[in-house]
Specification:
By secondary structure, the protein is α/β, with parallel strands linked by helices. It is built from 5 helices and 4 strands; from the N terminus they run βαβαβαβαα.
Amino acid sequence: MGTFDGKVVIVTGGALGMGRDTAIEFGREGASVVVADINADAGKATVRDAQRAGGKAALVTADVAKAADCKRVVDEAVRSFGAVDILFNNVGIQPPRYCSGIMSRVQTTGI
């Protein structure tokens, strides 16, 4: 019995990196996982690996920067698995200027 048995999870940016690992782990813990990503080939591999880990999984190729694609991801999750219980919003890109000086901010605040 997995921690997420019976739960439906959307993982945005779920095709690669941390999103991929997260999708596979949710699958291993019994979740039905919807991988939302613009990279269809990598997304298909993640779906396959989440299924091999024990979960159900589906890919929705989408650009979640677009509202219509976000709606489609949720609609597909509900159509495929009946609900959405968890949204793991992993996708996002920080511009380089955001990251400059972050270490000094971390040291100043102690986080």
